[in-house]
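My main concern about presentation is that the manuscript never shows what a single data entry looks like. For the editor and my fellow referees, an illustration may be useful. For illustration, here is how one protein appears when written out as sequence plus structure tokens:

***
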Amino acid sequence: MTMIINNLSNSWLRELKEEFSKPYLLELDNFLEQRKSDGAIIFPKQENIFRALDLTSFEDVKVVILGQDPYHGDNQAHGLSFSVQNGIKQPPSLKNIYKELNSDLGFQIPTTGFLEPWAKQGVLMLNAVLTVEKATPNSHANKGWENFTDKIIKTIAEKRENVVFILWGAYAQKKAELIDESKHYIIQTAHPSPFSARRGFFESKPFSKTNEYLESTNQKPIDWQIQDDQLSLF
């Protein structure tokens, strides 16, 4: 399985190893290889498909932020939902996430959209679909990724306790049925997209609520402030 198993960290391989013999993943792998052979430009780069899992081990997950599929513009996606690579313009949804972070916690808004510092603290920024083709959103939907990422969510929900699941928008909220709310904390609001942010995302305070829950369960809160050389306020 050339594309799929590439660079998956050991902690996740242990938890997900049974998935790799299932037909749907073999079919997905064949699909990705075929699209690559056809000349399709696939984002993120192959080595970053599992970047979210590489940065946040199974044992370290405290928070899950679920997105739909990767950004489809050049040099944007690098394997973390809502995050873009350093030096890339912040997409509208991420700008709204930062606005809410400023409103919620008073944090300054960074010029970078690179969210790896969150991942390194236990925030799993997982897209439901892990690949996309250039300029074609949802082009790899319903090819098998959803089965795989549902398995990730179920595994966390079943084997871990006191994880915060942040589900922004109707698509992500469908995953709530996979999560036992008696063991975990689920935050569900509108999506941060400009089309919906004013319908319940703004003023929802997901960052402070997450930290309050983590502290109430004797876990270290997340430092949500992304540092860069030039901080600015909207």
